């Protein structure tokens, strides 16, 4: 990013990059500045050669309590349309490296949408998810109705979206929204440990697996398989494929370089 961020904090620890939402006084409410900074940091880390995994979390009491209500309360529909702010969120779909979301406390509204953009989601046992937009007289606008429905199906999505009901961490885990639950004090340590392990995987394989899984969400089986096959073949041009298979034959641990 060109200038220092105001609403997030970023750092790297070896191959793992961390992005922390940092407006704790308003429960990390996502104003437009914060969203721009998140997108900028994601893109920077995606381009950085030494980064292999990105972790997204929130500082303070929670991951985030949703879009900044103060910022949009007085908006009119044409203004919202011209702002076109949610189109920017599409940039998250183009991040090639794996993103792990680490949620503690609330992930509501736009913050739940942000969490659903992550590739893996870890949460604390007391985390709460939900789309309370309906209680504000609106609805999700950054992919919530789409990503939640694809993940849990129509019935549960309708129930949660119609009522704004909070989804417990246990329910989120039961419905496959969350990969793993941890005690609050263990969340970041366990997430970082997982991220470091993931960073040891061959980056090109991880990249193409991510692309193929995301493609599969929208594609027909035939189209998805075609896409998968091309990516499979492509990996045979990589040094890591040669190294991975040679190491297997030589009964030693492979050293992957991401080339
Ligand atoms: N926007 C702006 N400010 C927010 C906020 C939000 N989404 N959520 C919390 N805050 C602020 C509060 O106004 C409060 O500020 P003050 O201290 O200046 O009064 C501060 O953060 C702490 O919040 P609370 O005192 O409300 O904390 P609580 O523990 O009593 O309640 C909560 C926590 C249940 C999460 C409650 O804050 C809440 O309901 N927040 C709003 C949740 C919500 O509706 N999110 C959806 C937003 S719309 C959206 O996201 C649209 C979209 O799709 C993009």
How would you describe this protein?
- The chain is of the alpha/beta class and 259 residues long.
- The protein has 12 helices and 9 strands.
- The strands form 2 sheets. A 6-stranded mixed sheet has the order 1-2-3-4-6-9, with helices on both faces. The chain has a 3-stranded mixed sheet with strand order 5-7-8.
- The longest helix is centred in the first third of the chain and has 16 residues, at 32-47.
- It is globular.
- The two termini are 25 Å apart.
- The mean pLDDT is 96.
- The protein binds acetoacetyl-coenzyme A (CAA).
Number of helices: 12
Q: Tell me the distance between the termini.
A: 25 Å
User: Which percent range fits the helix content?
Assistant: 40-55%
| Alpha carbon gyration radius | 19 Å
Bound molecules: acetoacetyl-coenzyme A
The side-by-side strand order for the widest beta sheet comes to 1-2-3-4-6-9
Major beta sheet summary: 6 strands, mixed
Q: What is the number of beta strands?
A: 9
Instruction: Return the average pLDDT rounded to an integer.
Output: 96
Q: Strand fraction band?
A: 15-25%
Shape estimate: globular
- Structural category: alpha/beta
The succession of helices and strands, N to C, reads EEHEHHHEEHEEHHEHEHHHH
Poorly predicted regions:
none
